[in-house]
Amino acid sequence: MREAFHDQLDAVFTDLAEMCGQVEVAVRRATEALLSGDAAVAEQVISADEAVDANRERIEDNAFALLSLQQPVAGDLRMIVSALRMVSELERMGDLSVHVAKIARLRVPNVAVPDEIRPTLERMAEVAEDMVRRVHSIIRDRDVEAAIELGRDDEIMDQLRRRSFAQLLSDDWSHGVEAAVDIALLGRYYERIADHAVSVANRVVFVVTGQQLNRNDD
Questions:
Q1: Separation CA 91–CA 22 (nearest Å)
Q2: How far is CA 140 from the centre of its chain?
């Protein structure tokens, strides 16, 4: 009975890793839509979010079933509660990708990102996608060292966010308020994707070690 229970626990984390893979695709395709002005790709990202939401419901149902039927304690309880928190964070990352795609769609046939700020936004998107990709592996392998390293690397995203604001506030900005609002929102979306990735990684550390990790830890 206990062996079957632990197999079910492992299956929950396998499902979380698969859901993270969906989010990785969403981030990548949303960025593609944003930088190319491709409405069709943007629509695909928006439509695909239904599958992410469905996975959240399924993972939550399985986790709650384990809570009610098995009444886990100690490490097993920690694992299930953490999974419930992680699935919410992953869904939110998917939602943020949809927000990026919606800005892309709104500005078609134009591209929402002006040329001079494009390198900064491209780099933010690369960092966000890389962090989601790494979280995928962290969940799958329950890799504590990689999780801690991810939290340290989040400073790169913070620096890029500050750079984007400096560009928006520069006297050289000539694209008006609408474009400035788009860029401010896009920067926030990518930054929050990174923040959620770090939070998920920290929960993996908690599952494995029982230790709470915050973003200021070395």
A1: 10
A2: 15
Type of residue numbered 116 = E
Please state the pTM of the whole predicted model: 0.91
Beta carbons within 10 angstroms of residue 150's beta carbon? 24
How does pLDDT run along the chain (218 residues), one tens digit per residue?
567 777 888 899 999 999 999 999 999 999 999 999 999 999 999 999 999 999 999 999 999 988 887 776 777 888 899 999 999 999 999 999 999 999 999 999 999 999 999 999 999 999 999 999 999 999 999 999 999 999 887 889 999 999 999 998 888 899 999 999 999 999 999 999 999 999 999 999 999 998 876 654 43
Radius of gyration of the chain (CA): 19
Distances (CA, A) of 76 to 8, 9, 13, 83, 215: 11, 8, 12, 11, 25
Q: Which two tokens stand for residue 190?
A: 């990518």
Angle (CA) 120-125-126 rounded to 5° is 95
Write the DSSP symbol of residue 170: S
Q: Which amino acid belongs to residue 211?
A: Q
